[in-house]
Amino acid sequence: MNNRILNLQNKLDLNLDGCIIESEINRKYFLDFSSTAGTLIITKDKSFFIIDFRYIEKAKKEIKNCEIILQENLYSQILDILKKENLSNIGIETYSMTINKYQKYKEIFDKNNINIDIRNTFNNIIRDMRSSKSEEEIVYIKEAQKIAEKGLNHILKFIKIGVTEKEIAFELEFYLKKSGAEGLSFPIIAASGKNSSSPHATPTDKKIENGDFIILDFGVIYNGYCSDMTRTVGVGEISKEQDMVYNIVLEAQIRAIKAISSGVSCKLIDNISREYIYKQGYEGKFGHGLGHSIGIEVHESPFFNSKSEDVLGENTVMTVEPGIYLEGKFGVRIEDMVIAKSNGYEIITNAKKTLIIL
After folding, report:
1. Which of 88, 162, 182, 303 could form a disulfide with 221 if both were Cys (CB 3.0 to 4.6 A apart)?
2. What is the C-alpha to C-alpha distance for residues 119 and 96, in angstroms, rounded to an integer?
3. What's phi and psi for 341, nearest 5 deg?
4. What are 16-56's pLDDT values in tens digits?
């Protein structure tokens, strides 16, 4: 049986008879199967996947040790399974469930004396499972990063005064997909000059000019797993202020990375980087969290931020991405992926971090 399903079964609360998983991303995690629809039911010793006609043939071929059921009348089929297996207390994963969907479940289950359990405990079990990456998952993330770094090397040769942000983004996306990426982790950020002061700027028709900083933030998907990296590069003659800000951000990142280890508070890691930036006179200029976990989604739990109550787990892959953003002038962000280990950390990102001037 699927090891992840077995793992979840072993972790089910003693008061839970089973669970229902509907979100696309978590179905993929537990079944290693991609579909835009489907309902996964896991009991303490069995698993069932209800899927419509579009995917039934593919599901039967690819999913092992899970009963595949053609969807006809979903809620009736779910009830039939729960009654047949004598299940009365069901955990429902509310990762992306709408209120309307929950109310539908509650209405049907109440009529049949089945209790719905939506405590955070169940959702947290899935969250914790996904945050600790297996060796295989880490291999996929590393491969995704290798493709991204090939893309970085290519686009640095392409960038020159006069090309537009959109042209940079288009060229980079084409090259990444040609180099083996299944897709992008998120839309490419290519922001230059004043536009770089917006952390999530969308590429525009602005042309690259002498003295610009360009923030390049991108990642690719390889075998279902994401990478994420950011580099800020200069073009032509940059100012002393630009050089100083870049090195402050770099030092803030290095300090945070050195503190990473399993068992360490995510809030502490964020504070290390944030306090350094603030002490250099840039309080209020670093307005986002320091980073996030990454896997089959580009943004996963836990997160590095000033309010986090999470602690790093063994083999959790995190981004570390401090920045300084000066409105109307420029911005700087540097981002690497790092694995939390019991005795420290491993940096996945190998791309050069000292300031590159094109």
Report:
1. 182
2. 15
3. -120, 165
4. 889 999 999 999 999 999 999 999 999 999 999 999 999 99
Instruction: Write a three-state SS string for 140-187.
Output: HHHHHHHHHHHHHHHHHHHCCCCCEHHHHHHHHHHHHHHCCCCEECCC
**In this predicted model, what pLDDT tens digit does every residue of 239-250 receive, in sequence order?**
999 999 999 999
Instruction: Give me the phi and psi of 333, to 5 degrees please.
Output: -145, 140
Q: Does residue 71 have a pLDDT over 60?
A: yes
Task: Take residue 154 and report the two structure tokens written for it.
Answer: 């290519």
Report the C-alpha gap between 296 and 130 in whole angstroms: 9
Long-range contacts of 236-243 (CB under 8 A, 24+ apart): 236/161, 236/209, 236/210, 236/211, 236/212, 236/357, 236/358, 237/210, 237/211, 238/211, 238/213, 238/357, 239/211, 242/211, 242/213, 242/330, 242/332, 243/355
Q: Which residues, other chains included, contact 98 with Cβ-Cβ below 8 Å and sequence gap of 6+?
A: none
Cα 173 from Cα 1, distance rounded (Å): 38
Read off the pTM: 0.94
DSSP state of 279: I
